[in-house]
Design goal:
By secondary structure, the chain is mainly beta. The strands form 4 sheets. Strands 3, 5, 6, 8, 9 and 10 form a 6-stranded antiparallel sheet that branches. It has 2 domains: 26-181, Immunoglobulin-like, CATH 2.60.40; 190-270, Sandwich (Immunoglobulin-like), CATH 2.60.40.1930. It has helices at 3-23, 157-161, and strands spanning 29-36, 41-48, 59-67, 73-74, 92-93, 103-111, 134-143, 152-153, 167-170, 173-174, 176-181, 197-199, 206-210, 216-225, 230-238, 241-244, 251-259, 262-270.
Length: 272
């Protein structure tokens, strides 16, 4: 057989095989950050959507930010899910960065050398990301927290500009999903501590988000369905905040609004 044709056929077969393998990957992987102030701990969780995964968690990047004025510090942390000396999820933190925009940042990265499901003796951790389930993948200790410090997975201009925004790849394929920040332990500005309302509720075409005494200022709102999946993202600078929800199917949803780095979440219903 012609060697060139053989190489071409082999390459085509490899591409087909790779495409087939990629088709079996989860749609994406979401990340969440839970703040446990009682135990002075942050818990990072992953959720593989649609399918389970136990192969190569090729690359992970996430950055946590908190107020520059806070005395709180974040330790390196460890993974209860895929602990050292495994090289299937070797998480390494950066130094703390304070770029002068009101926040401190610390970035954690991982570049896997073996598959999650590989034997422990081979450097794996014999683990997987189950389909549609949150898994605690890393825990980070908090020190010197005066109380009320808000920690969150950062998704802002600084992380984007410095290649520190949330990213995950599976078998070398980008599978970056949504970010979910728990409000547990968060402190809010006085104007946002009470009275966050969504009207009308139940809603049909639009929802109006209101905060006490808030008449100006940038806001960002994200709407999640009952399964915790992000369904839309909206932002603006006029108050009250109005969001078009005509595209949403009837059901139970929640809206998280971010103002000046603080978060607040309320549930609402779409009924038609």
């Amino acid at each position: 057989m012609n060697c060139r044709l053989l190489r071409t056929a082999s390459l085509a077969a490899a591409i087909v095989a790779l495409s087939s393998a990629n088709a079996q990957l989860p749609t994406n992987v979401d990340i969440s950050l839970d703040h446990d102030p009682a135990n002075q701990l942050l818990r990072v969780r992953f959720r593989a959507n649609d399918l389970s995964f136990n192969e190569l968690l090729s690359s992970v990047v996430f950055t946590i930010r908190w107020s520059e004025s806070s005395t709180a510090t974040l330790g390196f942390g460890a993974s209860p899910w895929c602990p050292s000396p495994s090289v299937a999820f070797p998480v390494t933190p950066s130094s703390v960065q304070t770029p002068g925009n009101g926040y401190k940042y610390r970035t954690w990265t991982s570049i896997a050398l073996v598959a999650l499901g590989d034997l422990i003796d081979d450097g794996g951790c014999e683990q997987s990301l189950p389909a549609d389930e949150w898994v605690i993948v890393h825990e980070i200790p908090i020190s010197n927290d005066p109380g009320g410090t808000a920690f969150e997975i950062a998704a802002d201009q600084w992380t984007l500009d410095n290649n520190r925004a949330y990213f995950v790849s599976l078998n070398g394929v980008d599978a970056t999903g949504s970010i979910f920040n728990s409000s547990t332990g968060f402190s809010y500005p006085e104007s946002a501590t009470t009275g966050f309302t969504i009207q009308p509720n139940p809603a049909n075409q639009f929802i109006t988000l209101s905060l006490p005494e808030r008449t100006a200022g940038l806001w960002q709102a994200e709407v999640f369905d009952a399964a915790g999946r992000s369904t839309m993202l909206s932002n603006g600078q006029h108050w009250p905040a109005v969001i078009d929800v005509k595209s949403l199917k009837p059901g139970v949803y929640s809206a998280t609004i971010s103002v000046s780095g603080s978060l607040r979440t309320e549930r609402f219903i779409i009924a038609r």
